Prior knowledge:
Chain A is mainly α. Chain A contains 13 helices and no strands. Helix content of chain A is 71%, strand content 0%. In chain B, helix 4 runs parallel beside helix 5 and helix 8 (199-211) packs parallel to helix 9 (225-233).
Amino acid sequence: MDLSAINPVLLVASIMVSATPILLAALGELVVERAGVLNLGVEGMMITGAVVGFAIAVNTGSPLLGFVAAAVAASALSLAFGVLTQFLLSNQVATGLGLTLTGLGLSSLIGKPYEGIKSPTLPKLDLGPLSDLPVVGRMLFSHDIVVYFSLALVAATWAFLKYTRAGLILRATGESHDSAHALGYKVVLIRLAAILYGGACAGLGGAYLSLVRVPQWTEGMTAGAGWIALALVVFASWRAGRVLVGAYLFGGVTVLQLNLQAAGADVPVALLSASPYVVTILVLVVISARGHHGAPAALGKPFHATS
Amino acid sequence: MKRRTLLQTGAAALTLATFGGTAALAESHGPVTAGFIFVGPIGDGGWTYEHNQGRVHAEEHFGDKLKTIYQESVPEGADAERAITQMALSGADIIFTTSFGYMDQTLAVASKFPDVKFEHATGFKKAENVGVYSARFYEGRAIQGTIAGRMTKSNKVGYIASYPIPEVIRGINSAYIHAKKVNPDVEFKIIWAYTWFDPAKEADAAKALIEQGCDVILQHTDSTAPQAAAQEAGDVITFGQASDMAEFGPMPRVSSIIDNWGPYYIERIQAVMDGTWESDDTWDGIGAGMVGIGDISSAVPEDVKAEALAMKDQIAAGDYHPFTGPLKKADGSDWLAEGETADDGTLLGMNFYVEGIDAEIPQ
């Protein structure tokens, strides 16, 4: 085994790229769940974002437009979930699962003509002197704009939930929708807005997969990333900062196992391949053993003003 | 059950009719139906794409006399049995199952439909109505290995492998032997992806190899994701896998192995039409045209290109076998003596690395 073959600088750089899709999707779902809604359709919204983002980027030649379109398309899909669960009071778990199945089917339909096509990729952001710094320049300051956007979004989500009045109202809705309603807040509209935001974030995450990380469109390409994003929210006990830690940890183990194989590490390959999932399960066990989960009290409970 | 019996009787009647002799009689029973089971989407740009091209060629060749049906992205393993059964029930006369992992499922379904012909790609188990076919991809790997050994500057060649099965191990060995022959310092880094098709994973694997200094990436997975990763990295060369992947040339893709299934499919479907189909074992290479070598791009120096093409001609003519001794196994034991060539039995069951590959095959 030759571990010196693994270059830590490049390793960190690829971990950042590998973690970005799930980070974006998990941040969106975090806000949705903080508002008291459980949307299990992340996978479906991600893959819809992946295919629509790819299609628009190919047709317009602009990856940024692709990202915008991905966000719009995925939140349009989440609107269906919002209407069903918030106005028609359907079961959130079943509706969310339905959303995933719809997204997977819809995306392979839309994506047929785009298989095997190359897309314009997002250029690396030129941060001037920062990118030229030794070690950290390559590690941290030579990524594309979406990586930095996702990091900024972590800070923004944290600040929004902790310091702003709107964030407080959103959290109140998630903890006790009856109290929020009694105070005169429009619970259903607040939740709908959160659902749309969550959809947009999942769409961006999906588009990052098809436009940057791979980059190409193939059927079923999210391969379970949406479910990992859902697990991350629980893993992070509904805090933005911990979502970042979780996403980078998961991305890190994924990339590290491939690097270990290439370096000839004497560990069974099957175990290495399973390691990201094993680590996720372990952390979830540790968190639930500690007792306090930090889950919003009204998570997944339907609300109607007359009840 | 009734439906199945009915179809079996129908198929038996058709076979009888075709055995009866005249082509006119057979034609009066309508077109022959050929079914295809694919492991990935036909738009993967690689393995499944080429099988589908073969299907399209057969359709063009036979016109009205042939109807084809296919199913994409059928998972290997238990669920494949359902898909193959479904295809047999819907009236296929011959079914091509186009991935190694359908082997036992193909045999299981074939035993229930004795009058349907089955052709399993890259497997090694036959039956009365199950034939096997594959291509000698290792011949193409020998040429890739030569180009890789000549062109690598870091002397590190990355190999994205799928599953540890003989077909894949053969490819690694053949590429390694020929890279080593022209460049004694060459070293192979192998990643097992445990998938035929997962673009995100293939891309990550390619990036990991490139980051560890590999400037040549060989792949035995089906998507073009590693090509895209190499293109982004810049100074890395790749080879098209299963399909030409010409859209990534002249750099990073400098050449390719192209699977050419069309003529074989036409021949076997014709045999079904004539009633002369028999279970057999086809394993053709460059010589028979089943393995094509894609255009060697301008990024390859002229002398290397000439060397590669000379080897291609020698292999095609049968003058050179890529597994020619002296060769030792990785555990140091003798395998082939000076001038001895490997027999097909050993190649079909190959489960060892040749000497010099510093890695273990996962069990």
